[in-house]
Amino acid sequence: MAAFLYRMGRLAFRRRWTVALVWAAVLAAVGLAGMTAPEAEEEPFSMPGIESQEAFDLMEERFPGAAADGATARVVFVSPNGEKVTATENKKAVEAAIAELGDGTQVASTVDPYESGAVSEDGSTAYTTVTYEVDASGLTDASRSHLDESLEHARDSGLTVEAGGDAMEDTGGPSGAAEAIGISVAAVVLLITFGSLAAAGLPLLTALIGVGISLFAITALAGPLGLTDTTSTLAIMLGLAVGIDYALFIVSRYREERAKGRTPQEAVALATGTAGSAVVFAGLTVVIALAGLSVVGIPMLTEMGLGAAGAVVVGVLIALTLVPAVLGFWPNAVLTRKDRKARRAGGTPRETRKVNGGTRWASFVLRRPLPVLLAAVAGLGALALPMTDLQLGMPGDEAKSTETTQRRAYDALAEGFGPGFNGPLTVVVDAKDADDPKAAAETVSERIGGTEGVVSVSPAQFNESGDTAVFSVVPTTAPTDQETKDLVNTVRGDRPGIESEAGATFEVTGTTAMNIDISEKVQSALVPYLLVVVGLAVILLLVVFRSILVPLKAAAGFLLSVLASLGAVVVVFQQGHGADLLGVETTGPIMSLMPIFLVGIVFGLAMDYEVFLVSRMREAYVHGERPAQAVTSGFQHSARVVVAAALIMIAVFSGFIGESDAMIKMIGFGLASAVLLDAFVVRMAIVPAVLALLGERAWWLPKWLDRILPRVDVEGEALTRPTEPEAEPAEKDLARA
Fold first, then answer.
1. C-alpha distances in Å from residue 436, one per residue of 387, 430, 460, 499
2. Partner of 498 at 20 to 30 A CA spacing, among 382, 409, 423, 623?
3. Angstrom distance (rounded) from CA 588 to CA 578
């Protein structure tokens, strides 16, 4: 591996114009394809294999044109100063608002609250549901503007008017603020790390080129493959992050080799052969983690994982080819100012510092490995404890800021009609084989209506064929309460008896039931996902490090950091400690997909740090250093760069904490916390402590396994040369450039 990449880096340096033109052509080609590709049709969210989705599919089949997944806006009217919404003037204002709402071009129907009984018992509140012919992503700007204008006109009458539902959601693409923050902080970190504008700018430039290629490719393939906007979001985030990191490691190793007196061409080749090998295997671990999202069985996650994996592959290829080529154009530009001045003056190369912050920290850990290990594990364990109280769900309007109309509508409905009114269950009765479909639907309705925890059941609505009925069930508790989940399970548990009595089958769906089903599916898929991803990564690291204990230690450390970060998320977003500092106004269940996101994304990034840090230790050990010396050497050469890479990751993810959406805050906080804990506690403390305690045993591998495993030479052992580096004539010419 190292020898092959050495030749690749040398070739890229020598044929830099060809390499640069090839990548420029690739960017132009995919850019043209992306810009000219027809706009992809937004496909509705689906979750195969759960009852809620099956019920939705049945509704679409039996109620053609009814748009079971059509967008809805629930508009709430609250009378002022203790008046009744049934008062003459207020009633006229409500009816006028409903009429105006119904005039929208994409509106399928509106409901008169006075005819449907959608008025609270105290007469203070009424609501109407506006149903659209398309889902939320299909709403035009004109439809959204009409909805907003209708609400404003209704407020002019003196009524308090708020609206919730998916029709009110902003489906626009990402603003780019988080990415801009991440790039800005990354530039500062790179500048401090390298002390050179060129060295700081090169990783940013190549990373942006890689992200551009990936984004245009996803856009071009969105139509044929049915990809959604969410696919590009994760690809941009990770493509930018790993693109910077991988180029950072190549440039750092190049500068190190130049400081030893290597010529630019030789330094590029050695950097690509050694650091490039680590880049390849680090990229493979990320790809495994992202592609493994397919195991969960959620189409959206599969698309996001594969799209992001493709972006990572592009980042690896650019780091191995374009970065060496750019270094060929400006070989001295990435060096420090002192080095550039010394070379212009014909001075000797500066030797690499033997003592730095990395070596001092490694020496500290090596002197007291057991206390450091116990303190780190105890700290992560304490942070992970709240994870035992983890409650998964899909936070809705109740998690939004009180400054939003969606949250105010939610609160008004809860106050006027009860907390369960914000999360009604939808029951679909399939009476196709029943002798009397209406009687069967009535039996199902009565039995469910008599279940403890049910406030009311709406009249059943039949399709044109009269063989399928739909009715709503209002629970006594809020959508995210455990009691609501228990009610859904109770109704489904009583199904055999109810269906036997009614002579018809039924299924429970609706947003609340869908969220419950998604949470359960994610929980059941988490363990298989972990087994697949961690298992494959352990095998890969076994090949890289030729050790049994090092990969196992890496996996155990990752699990500790993920559990601790999930515990931190629970403390803030579920228990509410410190929530005010992040602008979180309401606590509740943790987003169902959060554990999968953390495991998938953070695992790949954590293995990046593991490969880059430990590969330098392995390289030193293979080249004759004792285990303790190898740990110190690894920290001397890699600690500063790993810290810089982690700070860049944390900056990118922390940018999302400033978003107004609670779920985006949660994702940003969780990912930033996980990277912080993994990079600075696991990789910087637990890794050297464990290796110090293990000593020679850390690199033990049974002889029979050593014979079976392929040799990839990540350490660059084959690149060791006995000759002293000599300056080539070409270097003098390049130095003058």
1. 50, 12, 14, 13
2. 423
3. 14
pTM value > 0.70: yes
The sign one gets for the Cα dihedral 491, 493, 497, 500 is positive
Alpha-carbon torsion angle 699, 702, 706, 712, nearest 10: -20
Q: What is the pLDDT of residue 578?
A: 80
CA 354/CA 684 separation, integer angstroms: 19
Look over the chain and give the mean of its residue pLDDT values, rounded to a whole number: 83
Across 120-218, the runs of DSSP E, i.e. the strands, are: 125-132, 160-164
Q: Which two tokens stand for residue 460?
A: 């059943």
Q: Is 450 buried (19+), middle (13-18) or exposed (0-12) by CB count in 10 A?
A: exposed
Which tens digit of pLDDT belongs to each residue from 376-385? 999 999 999 9
How far from 501 is each of 459, 498, 733, CA to CA, in Å?
Answer: 19, 5, 92
Per-residue pLDDT, 32: 92
| Among 261, 266, 253, residue whose Cα is nearest residue 339 | 261
Helix, strand, coil percentages (3-state) for the chain, rounded to 5, are 70, 5, 25
DSSP lists the bridge partners of residue 468 as 430
pLDDT grade for 175, boundaries at 50, 70 and 90: low
* Partners of residue 73 on adjacent β-strands: 130
C-alpha–C-alpha distance, residues 725 and 721, integer Å: 9
Distance (Å) of CA 734 to CA 189, 250, 256, 336, 729: 28, 20, 18, 16, 9
Strand partners, 457: 473
In this structure, the strands spanning 392-393 and 590-591 are: parallel
